[in-house]
C-alpha cells in the first residue's frame, strides 16, 4: 500500500529517519470531515500512523490540530464527524480503544498534594488490573516510568499548583505522560505537550516521547504549535494543517523537498516549521493580504491533494493487528478486554488517596477547625449561660437555629469547592476508563463526612456547654446525633450539586439559593403549618426544618419558664414546641427522615455524576 510521501522519502538520501514500511499500521483515517453548525472545521483529512512512529500535527492557532487529534482519539463532542477510522485494521470499539490507547491532555490535571511517586503509584494501582499485575509488578512499572521519564530527582516532590509550589512545568508534563505510559499503550495521543514550556524543557519532553515511541513500539500522535528546528527533526512524520485542511502529510525530512518542489524553498537557516506555518497562516493585516494568503493556502491544499490522489491509502486493505478481528477491514476491533480491578480494591485505593489529599490540604483542615472553634466561641458567648426565664425562650430558639445554619453553609461551600477540583481530575482519569464512578463517589463521601463531623463536633460541643443548653448526657448525645445528620446531609448535598451541575460558577450560585430557602423555611421565621400550601411541600425536603424540630423538642420538652406577672409568655417548653410547629414528628422520626435525605442525596448525586461524567463523544 502506498502511503503518501513514504516511498520517496524512504529512498531519498536526505531522509534522516528510517521509516519501517513493515511496521504495523496502528491507526488509519480517511476523508475526515467535521462541521459544527454551518462551520466546516476539518475537511477531507486522511492519513495513518504505524507502530514506533512519532507524528506531529502542526499548524497555526485555529488550524484544527486539536480537532483532528480529538477525532482520531475518539474525543470529539458535538458537531458532525464523517469519514473512516480504523484501529489496527478494524473499526474501533470505544471500550477497547480507550483501554489500548492513551491521551495526554494539554492541562495537567493531577492531585497537587501528592508527590510524583505517589501520583504514579496510585495511577498504577487504579489502572493496572491486579489479576495481571501483582503489587510488586505495579511498583516495578512505576519505577520504570520514573527512570524512563528522568523523574528520579523529583520523585518525592509534590505536584503542586498555582497556590503551592511543586514540580517544574517540564516535570509536571512528564508526570502526565508517565501516568499514560503505565498501561503500555499501543497508541499515544498528546495535545500540545510542549505548551507553556521553555525551549530546553520542550526538547527534553519531545526527545523522551520519541524515545518511548521507538523503545515501546508505540504509535504516537501529538499536536504542536510551532516546534523549533531540533524538535521538528525528531518527528518521523508531520501533518501540516491550515484552515482544517491538509497541506502536507509525510516524513518531516521530506517536507523541505516537497515544499521546494511546489515553489516554496525554505531558506537555508530558517526553521522549517516556522517557514511552513508562515506559509499556511492567514494574514489579517489588510483585506488584500487576507485574500492573498487565502489564495496561497488554497494552492497549497490543492497541490497536496493532487500529489496524493496517486498515493491515497486504501482503508479496506487488511493489516495484521495483534488483537483478533473478524472478517473485512470494517469489522469491529475486539482485542481481549482488559480486566478491571474489583470494586473494593478500587474504592480502598481511592479512599486512601483522598485521605492523604484531605489531610495535606492545610487550608481546608485549618479552615474547618478554626471556623468551628471561632463560631463555637462567638455563638456560645453570644448566648452565654441561658437562664430559664421568658427571655431565654427566644435565645434558646436562636442558638438552636444557628447550630442548624452552621451545619449548612460552612460545610457545603468548602466541600463543594474541593469536590469540583477533584471531579475534573476524575473526569480526566475516567476518560481512560480507569475506575468506576461509584467507587469515586463513595470514596469522596467517606472522606468528607468524617472530616466535617470531627470539626463540627468541636463546634457543637463548644456552643452546647458555653451557652448552657440543658446539661444532660442523653440530651447532649441526641443533639449531637441530630447535628451529625445535618452534617451528613450537607456533605451529600454538596456532592449532589457538584455532580449534577458541571459549571463551578453555576454550582456556586445554585447551592446558596437552595440553602437560603432551607433556612427561610427552617421553622424559626415562619410556623411550617401556616405557610401557604403552594410552598408547604418544601418542609418535606428541608433538612434544616427536621434538624430544628429535633433540637427544639430535645431541648424544650421538660422545660418550664418563669414568667413575670402580667407579661404574656411561654410558661412551658411544650407550648414553645407547639407554637413553632416542631412536634409534627418525634425526634427519632426527624432523625430517620434526615437519614433518608442523606440517602436520597447520595443516590441522586451518584446518578447525576454517572450522567454528567459520561463522555458524550462521537465515534467513527
Ligand atoms: N465545537 C466547536 N464549536 C465551534 N467551533 C469549534 C469547535 N471545535 C473547534 N472549533 C473551531 O475550529 C477551529 C479549530 O479549532 P482547534 O481547537 O482544533 O484549533 P487548534 O489548531 O488546535 O488551535 P490552537 O493551537 O489555538 O489550540 C477553531 O477556529 C475553533 O474555534
UniProtKB/TrEMBL annotation:
Superkingdom of this protein's organism: Eukaryota
Main location: membrane
Membrane-crossing residue ranges in chain numbering: 362-386, 398-420, 441-464, 476-497, 504-526, 591-609
UniProt cross-references to Pfam families, sorted A to Z: ABC2_membrane, ABC2_membrane_7, ABC_tran
GO cellular component: membrane
GO molecular function: ABC-type transporter activity; ATP binding; ATP hydrolysis activity
Subcellular location, record wording: Membrane
Keywords: ATP-binding, Membrane, Nucleotide-binding, Transmembrane, Transmembrane helix, Transport
Name the record gives this protein: ABC transporter domain-containing protein
Native species: Coemansia interrupta
Amino acid at each position: 500500500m502506498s502511503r503518501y510521501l513514504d516511498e520517496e522519502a524512504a529512498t531519498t538520501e536526505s531522509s534522516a529517519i528510517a521509516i519501517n514500511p513493515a511496521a504495523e499500521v496502528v491507526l488509519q483515517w480517511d476523508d475526515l470531515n467535521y462541521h459544527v453548525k454551518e462551520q466546516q472545521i476539518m475537511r477531507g483529512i486522511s492519513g495513518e500512523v504505524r507502530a514506533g512512529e512519532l507524528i506531529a500535527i502542526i499548524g497555526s492557532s485555529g488550524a484544527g490540530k486539536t480537532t483532528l487529534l480529538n477525532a482520531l482519539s475518539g474525543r470529539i463532542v458535538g458537531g458532525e464527524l464523517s469519514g473512516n477510522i480504523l484501529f489496527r485494521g478494524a473499526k474501533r470499539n470505544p471500550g477497547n480503544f480507550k483501554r489500548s490507547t492513551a491521551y495526554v491532555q494539554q492541562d495537567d490535571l493531577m492531585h497537587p498534594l501528592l508527590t510524583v511517586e505517589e501520583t504514579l503509584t496510585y495511577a498504577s494501582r487504579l489502572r493496572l488490573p491486579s489479576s495481571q499485575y501483582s503489587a510488586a509488578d505495579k511498583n516495578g512499572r512505576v519505577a520504570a516510568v520514573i527512570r524512563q521519564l528522568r523523574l528520579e530527582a523529583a520523585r518525592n516532590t509534590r505536584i503542586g499548583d498555582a497556590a503551592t509550589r511543586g514540580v517544574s512545568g517540564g516535570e509536571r508534563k512528564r508526570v502526565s505522560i508517565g501516568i499514560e505510559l503505565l498501561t503500555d499503550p499501543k497508541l499515544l495521543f498528546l495535545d500540545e505537550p510542549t505548551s507553556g514550556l521553555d525551549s530546553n524543557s520542550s526538547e527534553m519532553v519531545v526527545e523522551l516521547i520519541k524515545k518511548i515511541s521507538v523503545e515501546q513500539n508505540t504509535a504516537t500522535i501529538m499536536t504542536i504549535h510551532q516546534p523549533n528546528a531540533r524538535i521538528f527533526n525528531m518527528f518521523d512524520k508531520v501533518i501540516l494543517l491550515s484552515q482544517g485542511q491538509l497541506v502536507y502529510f509525510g516524513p518531516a525530512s521530506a517536507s523541505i523537498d516537497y515544499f521546494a518542489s511546489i515553489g516554496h524553498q525554505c531558506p537555508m537557516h530558517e526553521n522549517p516549521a516556522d517557514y511552513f506555518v508562515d506559509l499556511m497562516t492567514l494574514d489579517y493585516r489588510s483585506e488584500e493580504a487576507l485574500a492573498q494568503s487565502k489564495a496561497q493556502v488554497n494552492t497549497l491544499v490543492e497541490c497536496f491533494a493532487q500529489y496524493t490522489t496517486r498515493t491515497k491509502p486504501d482503508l479496506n486493505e487488511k493489516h495484521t493487528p495483534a488483537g483478533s478481528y473478524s472478517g473485512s477491514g470494517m469489522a469491529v476491533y475486539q482485542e481481549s478486554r482488559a480486566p478491571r480491578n474489583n470494586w473494593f480494591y478500587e474504592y480502598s485505593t481511592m479512599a486512601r488517596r483522598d485521605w492523604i489529599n484531605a489531610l495535606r490540604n492545610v487550608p481546608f483542615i485549618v479552615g474547618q477547625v478554626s471556623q468551628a472553634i471561632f463560631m463555637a466561641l462567638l455563638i456560645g458567648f453570644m448566648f452565654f449561660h441561658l437562664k430559664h426565664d421568658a427571655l431565654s425562650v427566644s435565645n434558646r430558639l436562636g442558638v438552636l437555629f444557628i447550630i442548624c445554619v452552621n451545619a449548612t453553609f460552612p460545610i457545603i461551600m468548602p466541600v463543594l469547592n474541593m469536590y469540583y477540583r477533584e471531579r475534573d481530575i476524575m473526569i480526566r482519569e475516567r476518560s481512560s476508563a480507569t475506575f468506576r464512578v461509584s467507587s469515586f463517589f463513595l470514596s469522596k463521601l467517606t472522606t468528607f463526612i468524617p472530616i466535617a463531623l470531627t470539626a463540627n463536633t468541636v463546634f457543637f460541643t463548644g456552643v452546647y456547654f458555653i451557652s448552657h443548653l440543658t446539661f444532660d448526657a442523653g440530651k447532649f448525645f441526641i443533639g449531637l446525633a441530630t447535628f451529625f445528620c445535618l452534617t451528613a446531609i450537607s456533605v451529600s448535598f454538596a456532592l449532589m450539586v457538584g455532580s449534577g451541575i458541571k459549571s463551578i460558577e453555576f454550582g456556586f450560585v445554585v447551592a446558596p439559593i437552595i440553602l437560603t430557602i432551607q433556612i427561610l423555611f427552617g421553622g424559626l421565621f415562619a410556623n411550617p403549618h401556616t405557610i401557604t400550601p403552594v410552598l408547604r411541600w418544601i418542609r418535606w425536603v428541608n433538612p434544616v426544618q427536621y434538624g430544628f424540630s429535633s433540637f427544639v423538642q430535645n431541648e424544650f420538652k421538660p422545660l418550664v419558664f418563669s414568667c413575670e406577672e402580667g407579661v404574656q409568655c411561654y410558661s412551658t417548653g411544650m407550648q414553645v414546641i407547639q407554637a413553632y410547629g416542631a412536634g409534627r414528628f418525634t425526634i427519632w422520626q426527624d432523625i430517620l427522615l434526615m437519614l433518608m435525605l442523606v440517602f436520597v442525596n447520595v443516590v441522586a448525586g451518584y446518578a447525576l455524576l454517572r450522567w454528567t461524567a459520561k463522555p458524550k463523544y462521537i465515534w467513527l
